Structure formats: structure tokens, C-alpha cells
Hints:
By secondary structure, the chain is an alpha/beta fold. It is built from 20 helices and 27 strands. The longest helix has 22 residues, at about 435-455. It is globular. The model has no long low-confidence stretch (mean pLDDT about 95). 5-amino-5-deoxy-1-O-phosphono-D-mannitol binds near residues 359, 362, 405 and 406.
Amino acid sequence: MCGIVGYIGHRKAYPIVLNGLKRLEYRGYDSAGIAIYDGKELKFSKTKGKVVDLEKKLEAEISTEGTIAIGHTRWATHGVPNDINSHPHFSNSGDLVIIHNGIIENYEPLKQELKNRGYSFQSDTDTEVLVNLIEDVKKKEKVKLGKAVQIALNQTIGAYAIAVFDRKKPNEIVVARLGSPLAIGVGENEYFIASDASPFLEYTKNAIYLEDGEMAVVRTHKDMKVRKIHDDSLVDPYVQELQMNLEQIEKGGYDHFMLKEIYEQPDAIRDTFRGRMLADQGIIKMAGIDDHIDKFINAKRILIVACGTSWHAGLVAEYVFEELARVPVEVEYASEFRYRNPVIDKEDVLIAISQSGETADTMAAIKLAKESGAFVFGVCNVVGSSISRETHAGAYTHAGPEIGVASTKAFTTQITVLTLIALQLAKKKGKISTSDFYTYLRELDSIPEKVAEALTSNEHIEKIAAIYKDAKNCLYLGRGFNFPVALEGALKLKEISYIHAEGYPAAEMKHGPIALIDEQMPVVVIATKKGHYEKVVSNIQEIKSRSGKIIGIVTKGDVDVKNLADHVIEVPETIELMTPLLTTIPLQLLSYHIAVMLDKNVDQPRNLAKSVTVE
Ligand code: M6R
């Protein structure tokens, strides 16, 4: 939940680390700090606030010279966001400096032990305990920094991605990971360290993603060696060639990443099925599925685990799998699943959905399912992410980097990939006729154009946003395939505008939430044709009789809802099970415009972070 960056080489380190922190700010943005060795001394600056605040403070306070530096952008776990708790942290001697993403769970007993040995602490963080533990080991055992880090880490319980260096030996940085991501960019006599590869894209395309339980000492003019932390054995690291480019991680003329990512959806969805679906020939080819099709065919049930928006995509997938492949599906919050002693059969298939591929609860659910012998399949966006490597097989969404904290294109591409899987499974199980299979494929092929058409309602949606921006509450209703979309619409509004919103199955409204409805209450109702259209129209009548304000998401050309609702937003017609790919779009735009009008930080909403690598 924090971002870490480091550089060691022949270039000026400061701009690399500073820009890297700006790119990693999606991981946490309540405080930031940098330490630089300027050739003579170790300089540092840290502050509560965002990386721009650090930049102003740092450039006024210290020299930015030097070719080795580490930096951190924080999402607080231990200790409130303030200057003292910000990283980097220093050992008592001032020699060792560390940045850390993760949680050292046994920091209390370690801290007590260190206190008993005369150490003192400035901050409330677990990280300061770790750096002093490393110093203590280094002194006691008379070992080099790399060895001291290894011994210290073997005494910890928890998760970490760390970078640490010694001001007395400023030609090496020791890095290690367990449960938090860490990428090393390999250049010519230079190394870049970061939570993901975005900070070093313009310098090198060669990256090593450390695996859990691995560490490395990176030195200038020396080959890097990767070792296992627990037994010191050497590992042959895989150098991956990065496919990402700079353009993908910049705003490209949009005011916010979220808006850019909303508009990227036609291309992102196309990229998701490109090379996997030949609509005219009625073919789906997905190695991750085809190579393990027996596991899917023989599955007694499919379990889906995820969090947040990815969980909503899982709920849509439940409807789609059951409809097409006639296999029972259960969708679980990963955070609940992992702690409730679930019954998992070795004939179950577990699908883990995660944009970042780093969500700690989803990762823990995967490990649990693997222990029970289930086959585990990942649906991730970030290539090379921890979840994509922990699962037996998987399919990437290929949505491109999603930087806005509020997930948009991740959701629609997750649904796309899951629909492809459901269709392939339905075909292999003989649950779908050839002509229906063709029909679905052709329709999926047309979805990017239809999403583009849905996006043309943007200005109309902006006007509706202006009417409802001051609402205190908002209800989102949907049925069937669009019930999860109602949940997702409510989540989008909550997380970026801080307006309380709830998603509900439309028919459940009369079992409680209808009591909330009065003339102040905007109710967004997804009422596309087919499915439960007539039932939803009746639900709309019920809201209207209680003076609620109705915003209908309707199929193009709809008349009935238009006659009842205060506003309608049209989406193109499609097959019912694909409607979530279209109905989601106006809800994303509505929440976006409301948040902009309320002057909220759309891309970095308060208290949130893009990647939740803590429980
Ligand atoms: O990276 P993941 O898909 O595993 O993340 C899961 C949730 O943390 C994420 O979807 C979160 O709910 C977003 N802020 C929603 O917009």
C-alpha cells in the first residue's frame, strides 16, 4: 500500500526517484520522503502530504546531488500520517536508511527487545523497528549489510518490500520482498528499484520481479545476485522485457486518469479479446483455459474470490457462468473467505480476480485454495504481478495500466475476459448451440463500438451530475446481470465524491430501502430492455409514487421509463448478459462529473490506495 523507489548508478538519482514517486502515488499518498547520498553525506527530507509537497520542501532544504537515492510514498498502517512517521527511517547510529512497503506484524516484541538493548525510537512505525533490528544484527554478528538484512528478515513475521543502504558504504542497496511487490530495472551499470516498473520505463525495458522470499544486493559495476532469504540459496533471476510504454502511464490530454481510463474502454475491451476470439469463425482460443479445460469441465463448482470492484465483476461473472455454462458459482469477498474456514473441494476451480494482482486478501484466499488442492485461475491486469504468478493458470485482461484509484476499465475488461471463459466452457461442455455461440461472439465483437456510443452521452450526463451533485445520499438499483452494476455504480460515487450511496437489487427495495425515498433522494435505476424490464418499470413506479428522483439507464429508444423518470441516459441495445459492459459507462461518468464538480481529488480519493497489500 506504499510505493518505493530507488536508484543506484551514474545518473543524478533525485529526478529519477522523485518522478518515480509521482508515478507510484496511486499506491498511497498521505506522506512522502527521499534520502540521497550526495557523495559526502546522507541527506533526507520527508513530509506529511503528497509528493509535490515533498518536492517543494526537499528542494528548499537539501542539495539534490548524488547518484544513489531511495524514496517512499506512504499509505499509513502503523502511526498516523505525519512527518516523523514518513519514510525513510534511520537506524539509531544514523548509518542505515530504509524504505518499506508492508507490515511487520511482530514489531512490538522486536521493538521491546531492541529497547532492552538500548535502542530508542522516534516514530510509531514498524519500519523503524526493522532498520534498527538490521543494525543490531550487523553489529552483533559483524556481518555485511546484505547478510544482516537476511538474518533480520528471518526474525520477522509479516510482509515487506524494502530497500536499505548504509551511508558508510553507499555503493549498494539491499532489497528484499515478501508479500509486497518489488521490481528491479536493469540498466548499464545502473539499477532501478520500484514497486512496479513505471518509474524506470524511460531508462530500461529489462526488469526482474523478485519473487516472494527473495532478496538481492544491487551494486554499481557488479552483477546482481538474487538469493532466497530463508536459506541463502542462489536464484537465477528471469529478466523480463517490459511491454508497457510511457504514453500508457501519462494523462494524454485528459484532466484526470479516471476520465482517460473511462474513455480507453472501447480499446481496452478490444485488447482483451484480441487474438483470443475469432468472431466470424466462431473460435475462442485462450491458452490459460484450453490447457486446463478438463479442470473447468469437471469442476463441481466455481468459486470466485476478489475485493471491491473486482468482486463486482465476479458477481456479474456468476450470472454469466451460470447462464451459459450451467455450472454452480459462488462469489466471495476474499477477506471473508480466507478467514471463515471455507469448505473447498479439490474438484473446485477457484477464480481470483484482481486488477493489481497484489491484493493481500485475494492472495491469501488463493493460498488457502491451493492448500486444499483446488485448481486456481487468476484474472489480473498487471502483468507479472504476485497473483498472476501464484495461480496455476490465468488470463490477463490487457487493459493497460490503470492509475486512477477508482477502477473503471479494469471492471469492463474483467467482465469481458470472464465472458470469454464462460463461453468457451459452455461450448466445451456442450451447453450452447453453435448458432448461439456465434451470436454471442459477434455481439461481444461489437461491444467496443457500443461502449464508444455510450460514451457520447458524456455531456448529457454532466448536466445530470450538476443537478444531483449536492445530494447527501443516492440509491442504485438493478436486477439480474445489472444488480452488480448497481453495486459498482454506488461504489464509484462513494469513493470519489464521498456521497453516501447504496446499491440494491431493485426488487429488494420494498423490503427496507424504500423507507429512504423522498423528494431529496436520487435513485439511479438500470432498466435496460429484456430480462426483468417490466418488473423494473414497476419498481420505478414505486419510487415515483414516493417522489424519488429517478435517473434511468435505458436501452436506446426506450419509451416506458422515459415517461416515468426525471432523466434517462441511453445505452445501445445488446444481448442481456452483455448489458453490464454498457450500463456501467454512464455510472462511471456520473460519479466522475459529480466528484469534479465537488472539487474532490478524483484520481487520489482520501483514505484510499490503488493497491491494497495489507489485510
Ligand atoms: O487490484 P484489485 O482489483 O485486487 O483491487 C481490489 C479493490 O481494492 C479495488 O477494486 C477497489 O475497490 C477500487 N478502489 C474500486 O474502484
